[in-house]
Amino acid sequence: MRITIIGAGISGLSLAYAILQNLSNIELKIFEKASHAGGKIWTEKSEGYLTEASVNGFLNNKPETLDLAHSLSLNILRSNDNARKRFILSNNKLQLIPNNPKAFFVSNFLSFFGRLRVLSEYFIPKGKDDDESLESFALRRVGREFYEKLLDPMASGIYAGDPSKMSIKSCFSKVFDIEKKYGSLIKGFVSMGKEAKRSGKKISAGPSGVLHSFSDGMYSLIDSLKINLGERIVIDKGLKAVQKNSDTYELFFQDGTTYQTDILIFAIPADDASAVLMSFDKKISEILQTIPYPPVTVVAIGTDKNKIKSNTDAFGFLIPAKENRKILGTLFDSSIFPHRAPDGKLLMRTFMGGVRSPEFAMLDDQLLIKTVLSELKGILRIDGEPDFIRIFRWQKAIPQYLVGHNEKLKMLDNELMRYKGLYLTGNAYRGVSVNDCIANSFILAKKIASSIGT
Ligand SMILES: Cc1cc2nc3c(=O)[nH]c(=O)nc-3n(C[C@H](O)[C@H](O)[C@H](O)COP(=O)(O)OP(=O)(O)OC[C@H]3O[C@@H](n4cnc5c(N)ncnc54)[C@H](O)[C@@H]3O)c2cc1C
Predict the structure, then answer these.
(1) Do residues 240 and 283 both lie within one domain?
(2) What is the per-residue pLDDT for 208?
(3) What is the structure's pLDDT at 357?
């Protein structure tokens, strides 16, 4: 039995690993277009800095990444406690986000009327069962102030997305489900809190948990998977097209070679899969084409801590759209994890672009650096010039789950039923985080194993 995975990002690699845990006597290959495995995950070490090109870490609120890391004997690194402190830029000043409901209601984070509006959520009737945008959901339930100040920047922070187009059902499914089940979010949290007390379990609606990574950065996970999978990974091997023969799939690569397989799994971005599948199945290809990816550029900057007047002993800050800034937000990497910068220095990474302002992600290097420095100097009150700068560009950064995303998934599942042994996985469908990618790989590996068993 030949099983072939296209794409050696974390989805493809963790799927390959999970398949080997579930099945023996198979011929497994992973074909990767780029000259190294890892996809969006990449870590660089230079000049005493350890810099992530994209992924900062993963939360411990889902077991799969931790389980995978344990089974690969990796040294898991917990983020510092000060990383629980997060700021929002509000009227050009950094404001601490209260970290629990009580602190939120007694603080001046929102105006008195803004807080009253949030509390009135208790009495607002349940909406229809349909999907809607994050913006329309939030305005309906918690009001404009809470939405503009907290939810809009959160949407940028996680998805680099536009809340007026993002699906509440697919991007924040737990919140969507709480409204459906309890009629109100406040009622839901109160009931869930009581239930949590009774059962001793922690329950949360959002991305809770503590951020984790590895001492040598996120690429350690990829390195370990590479060692584990060995020569099954073939790099510099981009797939161009696919053809179905009677019982097998014939793969046509960009280098002119071909390969036959019984089971074929795409673990590549939706638009890449769309291009490959264009002549194979137009309908599937067209659905995949409707999942957009905005560009995001990450600008890493290292500087002396004593040149910064603001408090950077925290996770970082996000910026609401109404602040009209050219950057989306900044993470204080060396405050989040130890040994990311030389002693006395701060490593921070600023995110530009997204759906909000794709043009800023596309600036040339010089203009990009000038823009980021001028924004950071104003916000963090930095003196002098930085001594370390690195730029990481992601042309197609994060897939956008737009309103109706769930319907697209149903259509894709329906279409795929016509092709035995053909699967789609990766961050374009059921979760963009590394945790989601790995969790989905584990589920798919079991599904494939049971399909072979039957
Ligand atoms: C700036 C940024 C910051 C992020 N931060 C976080 C974070 O802190 N925490 C978190 O959990 N997640 C984060 N994410 C999301 C996370 O990085 C991704 O969701 C995840 O890494 C996606 O993995 P994947 O394997 O599904 O896709 P990818 O990593 O995109 O891998 C797909 C692979 O397929 C290959 N490929 C494409 N076409 C072909 C082809 N035709 N033939 C062969 N191979 C092909 C590509 O070269 C690539 O290697 C971030 C993403 C970005 C962009």
Answers:
(1) yes
(2) 72
(3) 95
State residue 334 phi and psi, 5-degree precision. Answer: -80, -10
Q: What's the confidence (pLDDT) of residue 98?
A: 94
- Is position 228 within any domain? yes
What's the confidence (pLDDT) of residue 206? 53
pLDDT of residue 149: 97
Which residue range forms the structural domain that includes residue 321?
43-83+293-394
The answer, yes or no, to whether any atom of ligand 1 lies below 6 A from the CB of 31, is yes
Residue 101 lies in a domain: no
CATH of the domain at 117: 1.10.3110.10
Pocket test for ligand 1, best of 6, 31, 40 (most atoms within 8 A of CB): 40
Atom of ligand 1 nearest to the CA of 398: 53
CA distance 187 to 410: 31
**Under-50 pLDDT residues of the chain:** 454
Q: Number of structural domains, the chain?
A: 3
> What is the 3 state secondary structure string of 108-176?
CCCCHHHHHHHHHHHHCCCCCCCCCEHHHHHHHHCCHHHHHHHHHHHHHHHHCCCCCCEEHHHHCHHHH
Domain of residue 437, CATH code: 3.50.50.60
Spacing, Cα 123 to ligand 1 middle (Å): 41
Mean pLDDT of the chain: 95
* CA torsion through residues 156, 158, 159, 165, sign: negative
d(CA 45, CA 50): 5
Q: 257, 222, 354: which is closest to 298 by C-alpha?
A: 354
Residue 90 lies in a domain: no
Please tell me the predicted confidence (pLDDT) of residue 202.
62
Instruction: Please report whether residue 435 resides in a domain.
Output: yes
Residue-level pLDDT at 62: 87
